[in-house]
Amino acid sequence: MSDGSARPHCRSCGTALDVSLVDLGMQPISNAMRKPGQLDGPETFYPLKTFVCSACKLVQLQDFHRADELFDDDYTYFSSYSDSWLAHARAYVEMMVPRFGLGPASQVIELASNDGYLLQYFKAKGIPVLGVDPAANVAAVAEKERGIPTVVDFFGVRVAERLAADGRKADLVLGNNVIAHVPDLNDFIGGVAMVLKPEGVATFEFPHLLRMIEANYFDTIYHEHYSYISLLAIERAFARHGLAVFDVEELATHGGSLRVFLTHAVRGLAPTERLVAFRAREAAAGLDGLDAYADFAARVRAAKRNLLSLLIGLKNDGRSIVGYGAPAKGNTLLNYCGIRTDFLDYTVDRSPAKQGRFLPGTTIPVHAPERIFETRPDYVLILPWNLTDEIVGQMAAIRDWGGRFIVPLPEARVLP
């Protein structure tokens, strides 16, 4: 953890960081929802500034806090409240089981297993599963409601050694949207190499850096995301620990993600054609240089001005606006743009863990989705824009009174 006085160093290769990508100012922890009794108390803000490693090209934050401050017993993110995300998890299991011959004799370990949203589908097929997650309250839901055994801890070499000693090495290790959350990348990857069987396979999904830059999805930058990952950077990180990527799949999730398939490098698996093609795509985009990152900050500032111009115009016309969702990305967007209750009357979220609380920094109240049908606002700002189709489908009835949806990024627009 840095106190800001020393020059930060790359969490992957150790190179001193001196190339800034974008500075989103001082912001609170994005998932640190406020309770009613906390509103009159102090709230801590940290710098939200990203750097590009000039050596390995990993984009990352300078961290000013401990990971255990982010994933405490009051963690409010539960994966199972998104129908589309559950469908994504189910499709993954249906693909992986036949491709790698998984069955009752196999062991599947998910890192950052959350509330058992994915492992439940392996379990239903009779495949032994184990989750690892640092949030005790979320892990308790996985165990009690879905019967998913879960180790409550931060995964790394220490936990991997314990699992290996207990005979729990894995045929499949998976992690969805976890690598970006890891402050000690080498400890995490070292643990993966240790817990993976000699013939085992690991898969990791993460929002793709190139897509973030191309589409201007700057709100995916927040303090829980220590790293912003390209195929180029993550292959270099895996290689330091004897792991090699042999396949890659491009996904639509989170505005554009990658799923990488890897195994022990000593197996010598040849890269698939799509991996070779994707390496060439990143090279063509210039991700191994620095020019590709140069204009991102200017486009971020322009997106802020465009969104505020739209909202100011609507408010000046006397329109009522509320939010849908309370995702971490939404809190980055709202705090960076200075959008508070002077713009949004409230927001709603399907997760009961968030209802009755207030968004960090902006103190916008969070209600159940039914609130929208009680107040009948003119506009609904969709904060989890990656779920726009799902949300518009669920909330289509707002159009009955002429209500409309706003999508903030990549460019603020009102849906027809």
UniProtKB/TrEMBL annotation:
EC number(s) on file: 2.1.1.-
GO biological process: methylation
Domain of life according to the entry: Bacteria
UniProt-listed Gene3D superfamilies: 6.10.250.3100, Methyltransferase, zinc-binding domain (6.20.50.110), NAD(P)-binding Rossmann-like Domain (3.40.50.720), Vaccinia Virus protein VP39 (3.40.50.150)
Keywords noted in UniProt: Methyltransferase, Transferase
Keyword Methyltransferase carried by entry: yes
Protein name: Class I SAM-dependent methyltransferase
Domain C-methyltransferase: 253-410
Methyltransferase putative zinc binding domain boundaries: 10-71
Pfam families registered for this protein in UniProt: Methyltransf_13 (PF08421), Methyltransf_14 (PF08484), Methyltransf_23 (PF13489)
GO molecular function: methyltransferase activity
